[in-house]
Design a protein that fits this description.
about 350 residues; about 55% helix; four-stranded mixed β-sheet; elongated
């Protein structure tokens, strides 16, 4: 499963790396709404929540659907500005139709509203459908959707005011430190882009972002099958300190592609691909292979020893061992006449973490 961004014929200067105050604020708000995704920021999140005024805390709860499970597209600017105020001004220039549709996608928990042809602002049937979807998500989502559809201007003004209050309450202080790390990352990315080209720059973003062999497509390893194009607009890559471990992408029709990626830690580990995680899960799904792993967990064994232990034929054991090796769960080493199979404990131990990282990515 991948997100594919068509960049055929796109000049290298249309691939942009830039920091965005609004995108980083959105990442911080996601941390506050979903602290379980970001244990490394548990201390920061606890301090911020403890210091929030009750009015601002309630405002964040009423609008958290814009950044909790997914981020509204207008919160990830395709053309980042130096200040939060300038980026909020750009959001204000978006028409109601575009703003409301993007907000409803996150509020209703999917892309079903986005794909509906009639506008919920003007079509009664589309409006009821949007409200039904929001209601299924919860009372708060339904109330937010009702206010948004009844008076978009009022909701937009309130959301902007809430974000401005966040700047005063915690963002400005956090941004000061984050901006230094973002600037360092941007120097590296832009230098790679200038000196070595798009492939090298993408490789430095994440192991989950690659350039297709023909150079016409950016491939993002995510738990989705989507495609978009950057023709005439370009692609914007926004680094984030608070966004880790998420790799967020704007890919909806009508929006310029944007990818928000986590800035690497001082000693980053390469993300395991979704394909590798899937192979390991499939390998473990067979009861015979689990029995073989149980024996191998006690130490290296030959194919013959495993066949004897479990009363299986040599060809059957060989087939199962081949599946486990392809999944990276076994290693094989020859000792004289014999080949001994050994359990790859680090890969097996990390499987839960790798699965969670692939899902959250």
């Amino acid at each position: 499963m991948t997100l594919r961004i068509d960049i055929s014929g796109l000049p290298s200067e249309r691939l942009r790396f830039a920091a965005s105050p609004l995108a980083e604020l959105t990442a911080m708000l996601h941390v506050l709404a979903e602290p379980g995704h970001h244990p490394q920021f548990a201390g920061w999140a606890g301090e911020v929540r403890a210091g929030l005024r009750p009015e601002l805390a309630e405002r964040l709860r009423e609008a958290e659907f814009l950044w909790r499970s997914s981020q509204a597209d207008f919160l990830l600017p395709a053309r980042p500005r130096p200040t939060l105020a300038e980026e909020l001004d750009d959001v204000d220039r978006i028409d109601d139709e575009t703003y409301v549709t993007a907000a409803l996608v996150t509020t209703c928990g999917g892309n079903r509203v986005r794909l509906a042809a009639p506008s919920p602002l003007t079509d009664a049937t589309a409006r009821e459908r949007a409200l039904d979807l929001a209601q299924a998500r919860g009372a708060r989502q339904e109330a937010f959707a009702e206010r948004l559809l009844a008076d978009p201007a009022a909701v937009r003004t309130r959301v902007r005011h809430t974000l401005e209050q966040c700047a005063e309450a915690f963002f400005d202080a956090a941004w000061t430190g984050a901006a230094v790390r973002l600037a360092t990352d941007l120097r590296l990315k832009n230098d790679l882009l200038r000196r070595q080209g798009i492939g090298a720059a993408l490789a430095s973003v994440s192991g989950a972002v690659t350039l297709a062999p023909d150079g016409d497509c950016i491939i993002v390893d995510k738990l989705q099958d989507k495609a978009t194009a950057a023709h005439g607009t370009g692609v914007t890559f926004i680094p984030s300190v608070f966004g880790s471990p998420h790799l967020v992408a704007v890919h909806a029709p009508g929006w310029q592609p944007v990818v928000q990626y986590p800035v690497a830690e001082p000693s980053p580990s390469e993300p395991v691909s979704l394909e590798a995680v899937t192979l390991r899960l499939e390998a473990l799904a067979h009861p015979v292979r689990l029995r073989l792993l149980r024996t191998l967990a006690r130490g290296p064994h030959t194919t013959g020893e495993l066949a004897h232990t479990w009363e299986l034929s040599l060809p059957e054991v060989s087939r199962h061992l081949a599946v486990l090796r392809r999944a990276g769960l076994l290693t094989a080493r020859r000792h004289g006449r014999y080949v001994r199979h050994t359990l790859n404990l680090p890969h097996l131990t990390a499987l839960g973490t790798d699965l969670l990282a692939a899902v959250l990515r």
